[in-house]
Amino acid sequence: MSFLKSLFLILGLIFGIFVSPAVAQSEPETLRPLINELAKGKYAETEQQIGALAATGDPAVAPALKALSEGDLFFRKSDGVVFIAEKQGNSYNLKDPLTLEAAGEAGRREVKKIKVNNKLRRVIRSALGSLTLMASDPNVRRLAAVAIFKAKDPEGIEALDVALAAEEDEGVRRVMEQARAAAVLNSDLDETQKLDAVATLSDMGNRDALSLLLSVRASSEGVVRSAASEAITKIEKSIATWDAAQNIWYGVSLGSVLLLAAIGLAITFGVMGVINMAHGEMVMIGAYTTFVVQDVIRTSMPGLFEYSLFIALPLAFLVAGLIGIAIERGVIRWLYGRPLETLLATWGISLILQQAVRSIFGPTNREVGNPDWMSGAFELGQMTITYNRMWIIVFALLVFAGLMLVLKKTPFGLYTRAVTQNRRMAASMGIRTPWIDALTFGLGSGIAGIAGVALSQIDNVSPNLGQGYIIDSFMVVVFGGVGNLWGTLVGAMTLGVVNKFLEPYAGAVLGKIFVLVFIILFIQKRPRGLFALKGRAVEA
Amino acid sequence: MMSSFLFRAMDAKAGIFLAILGAAIVLVPAGNLLVPETSPFHVPTYAVTLMGKYLTYALLALAVDLVWGYCGILSLGHAAFFALGGYAMGMYLMRQIGPRGVYGDPVLPDFMVFLNWEHLPWYWYGFDMFWFAALMVLLVPGALAFVFGWFAFRSRVTGVYLSIITQALTYALLLAFFRNDMGFGGNNGLTDFKDILGFDIQADTTRAGLFAASGIALVLCFLICRSITRSKLGKVLVAVRDAESRTRFLGYRVEHYKLFVWTLSAMMAGIAGALYVPQVGIINPGEFAPANSIEVVIWVAVGGRGTLVGAVLGAVLINFAKTWFTAALPDIWLFALGGLFVVVTLFLPKGIIGTLGSGWTALRQRKISARYEAGSDQPPSPAAHSPGAAANISPRAENTASSTSGAAKPQPAE
After folding, report:
1. What digits encode the pLDDT tens for the residues B288-346?
2. Residues A293 and A312: beta-carbon distance below 8 Å
3. B11 pLDDT higher than 60
4. For residue B65, which residues of chain A lie inside 8 Å, CB to CB?
5. Measured distance between the N- and C-terminal CA atoms of chain B, rounded to whole angstroms
6. Is the dihedral of CA B356, B358, B360, B366 positive or negative?
7. Of the candidates B161, B163, B171, which has its C-beta nearest A471's C-beta?
8. What is the ipTM of this complex?
9. Chain B contact for A350 (CB, 8 A cutoff)
10. Distances (CA, A) of A254 to A164, A261, A280, A342, A455
11. What is the maximum alpha-carbon separation in chain B?
12. Which of B161, B171, B339 lies nearest to residue A523, judging by beta carbons?
């Protein structure tokens, strides 16, 4: 047969008409009689016929078998030919079971369903499993092994042994071994085999293995039972550890989002003692900048899409930073010494910015695409780590480090810190505090803008984007304390992790409520946050 | 330092204000019920309800003004107390529906039947009686404010930090009331009310009655606020606002004063909410939204913080503008509101009434000093204007003396 296949292949290549049906069409003539056999006899015969089909080892029979187990396989009463049929109104649309091409229609009375029972379905499942275990696509093989693992069908052992001998892909091999272990435990093989199987499952160590072992413990006795109990405790421990790790990961991920959103706020609040209510809108403007950049790239130079975020970052920083400086020069500088009024004025600005964006871009969500390196996920042990979350954590830490560097190592940072600590003294020393105010405000807003670029990757880009983050950002800043970026980092990470650890017990909403109540109580204890500035500046 | 002139001006204004409000309480329901519909003086029912809503907003603004304008506590969470009062009233109205609900359950409100609840939760007991609900309208916001304030003021949480945690409070309540498990109707809130105290809630007479009740509540609360702010207690509050540490060093227990006025203000907000709900016919968690609380603050800022009339005026004016704008130019409304925030904080820090008041004071002073300069008239005795102002003679004399140059400066707000 393989000779025939390769012959056809070569012929096809020679004539330049290489299409896959050319290969498949070689089969139907040998397989069709076998399939048509299914129309005859009762359950016992059908089982034998399924065995015969499986014995061909040809994946082409898989659709027919699948249809059979789902009750979609019919035969025509007049000539006994078998079809896959789909009911439509009062008649059936027929499909060829091998080529899957349409084969006309048939009335309700003209065809008859080939009956199957649960036992046959199991037989079909394992037959399908062994058919697909040998497929050339490793993904198909893996799925087949997983299917056997779920069915725990002892009949699959043989097929798995054959497949294991031929398997070269390490990952697929492991899955097959696990599937074999599951099947072995469900069979009546001897204890040593079963003990091996328990050991395999114990190494597997996830929830599937756990539930399987639980059922083994309930049904078996003696050595196997005690081995299973041991494995269960081991798995439970490892699952608990991985769960904790996953929670910490989610928490750090949420924390880095909070950090990105809050860090700009912390700077402006630290220097000017003003909570900038329009801060969330700076985040939103950054996200919309990303949208515009991607839109331009899509229409004019699609090749650059992968780099769109790198183009958007400096632009978002500039746009948001300039708007921030404009706000500072236009409104906030008239209101120094009146923090509560500033809060109201910036709230007004935030309303204006929201409505402006709504008027320009419309009230609906805008689509911002993920570049390839941002999408997808990978497995680390039993944790699933998505790339976008991972890059956002990296990005948040980079922004934090960069900001630290600017504040600690540049003259601008020195002036900023001087103004934060003692505005009058700084002014006396010749620092132009109005300029520092404007630039700091611009810097804080710019950071919010690049936070927007990052958040556009994980959140809906809509005019309300900023509103969703502003309250959380406040909480982070107030919790972390003013005038110290480390406070913001610790605050953001703590709130993120606490939030995620509360979620499984209390649910997302209740968890958040607890965090809010916790912050309210915390402020009573430390009215100026975790890392408070000390000294006279505090009372100013 | 408050000059007696300002006091006297406020007196006159308060009189005018109460007269206008009293006239409205009588004339609007009369215009609705007694004047035939064909007459141009007829007030349609929807307008009565709308104005009733404004009055409850005005009451809320009054409550915010009491703590912010006079005590310097900027609350960004007063909508929480408003909504709690509203929920207490909403629960009473829900229980009044009785077996007339969609599911016809004699005790359980519709949403509980829908969620397969077997029994009424314990906190719904008693709300079938009006007196109990009315008590809760006062007690629930009051108790929450008391506990919250007791902790916050004792720990000396002030300024922006206090504002942020009040916001956290209302945000936490917003999230909590969105939950179906809370037993307050979740997302949909409480609605579909039938009657209040046995009167049909849709009837014109009930609407007019609710309007009058809102007006009377506003007048009473105005008088309470006024008597507080004009008393010695009110002076201490202003001192706390202007120099908290100094007041504390003088021996006043600042946190007690703050706690008192804070709790009172929350109760007033609760009353406002309770009157609001039967008029709009629904209460849902959206009322807790932090944005609502901030909007109330801007009503007060526009009208004039630290002037009670200003708070009422600001609330009515802005809500009237909102009604008009959102119908006529919906896109412009947020621009207008945002612009209002900016313009008022930049150019009208004292609000409408405050600016008018100080302008008028300056005018009066100029007139008096001109007379004084000409020597044609005796300086008027301040005691004649206000009995409490006797102590102010010498400062006022200084004032007039210093303003002989003709350019009297308005007093700084803080």
Report:
1. 998 899 889 989 988 888 888 999 999 999 999 889 888 888 888 888 888 888 888 88
2. yes
3. yes
4. none
5. 10
6. negative
7. B171
8. 0.77
9. yes
10. 42, 11, 17, 29, 11
11. 85
12. B161
Q: Are A467 and A280 in contact (CB under 8 A)?
A: yes
The better pLDDT of the pair A132, B60 is held by: B60
Phi, psi (rounded to 5 degrees) for A277 = -70, -20
Name the amino acid, one letter, at A401: A
| Structure-token pair, residue B276 | 């609001």
Percent of chain B scored above 70 by pLDDT?
88
Q: How crowded is residue A303: how many other Cβ atoms within 10 Å of its Cβ?
A: 7
| pLDDT bracket for residue A304 (50, 70, 90) | confident
Reading the block at residue A326, the tokens are 């404009």
Assigned token pair, B51: 């104005």
In terms of Cβ atoms closer than 10 Å to its own Cβ (0-12, 13-18, 19+), residue B197 is: exposed
Chain B residues within 8 angstroms (CB to CB) of chain A: 74, 148, 151-152, 154-161, 163-165, 167-169, 171-172, 175-176, 178-179, 245, 290-291, 294, 297-298, 301, 331, 334-335, 337-342, 344-346, 349
**Cβ–Cβ contact A501 with B under 8 A:** no
In A2-155, where does DSSP find H-type helix? Answer: 2-15, 20-24, 28-37, 43-56, 62-70, 118-133, 138-151
Please indicate, yes or no, whether the overall pTM of this predicted structure exceeds 0.90. Answer: no
User: Which of A185-189, A443-447, A518-522, B287-291 is least confident?
Assistant: A185-189
Six-digit token pair at A454? Answer: 């990052």
Q: Does A102 touch chain B (CB under 8 A)?
A: no
Task: Write out chain B residues lying below 8 Å of A338, CB-based.
Answer: 349
The model's confidence at residue B377, banded by pLDDT at 50, 70 and 90, is: low
From A197-211, A249-263, B72-86, B100-114, the region with the lowest mean pLDDT? A197-211
Query: pLDDT for B48-60, tens place per residue?
Result: 999 999 999 999 9
Q: How confident is the model at residue B266 (pLDDT cuts 50, 70, 90)?
A: very high
Spatial neighbors of A339 by CB under 8 A, at least 6 apart, are A273, A274, A275, B159, B160
Rounded distance, CA A6 to CA A123, Å?
A: 32
Per-residue pLDDT of B345-364, as tens digits, reads 888 888 888 888 888 888 88
Question: CA B88, CA B291: separation in Å to the nearest integer?
Answer: 22
What is the domain partition of chain A in residue ranges?
2-116, 120-220, 256-539
What is the residue type of B376? S
Q: Name, in order, each residue with C-beta under 8 angstroms of B213's C-beta and a sequence gap of 6 or more.
A: B275
How many whole angstroms separate alpha carbon A18 and alpha carbon A87? 34
- What whole-number distance in Å separates Cα of residue A221 and Cα of residue B170? 58
Interhelix angle A387-409/A433-455, rounded to 10 degrees, is: 170
How confident is the prediction for chain A on average, in pLDDT? 80
Q: How many helices (H) and strands (E) does chain B have?
A: 15, 4
Chain A residues closer than 8 Å to B155 by CB: 523-525, 527
Contact A527 B158 (CB under 8 A): yes
Residues of chain B positioned with their CB less than 8 A from the CB of A334:
346
| Choice among A11-20, A418-427, B224-233 with the minimum mean pLDDT | A11-20
The 8-class DSSP code of residue B411 comes to P
| Residue B351 tokens, joined | 């609000």
Chain B CA closest to residue A509: B175
Coil vs helix vs strand at A404: helix
**Cβ separation of A475 and B168 shorter than 8 Å?**
yes
**Which residues 313-332 of A have a C-beta within 8 angstroms of B?**
331
Q: Bigger pLDDT: B383 or B378?
A: B378
A380 secondary structure, DSSP code: E
Residue A84 has a pLDDT of 82
Judged by CB atoms closer than 8 Å, whether chains meet at B340 and A348 is answered as yes
A368 near A461, Cβ under 8 Å? yes
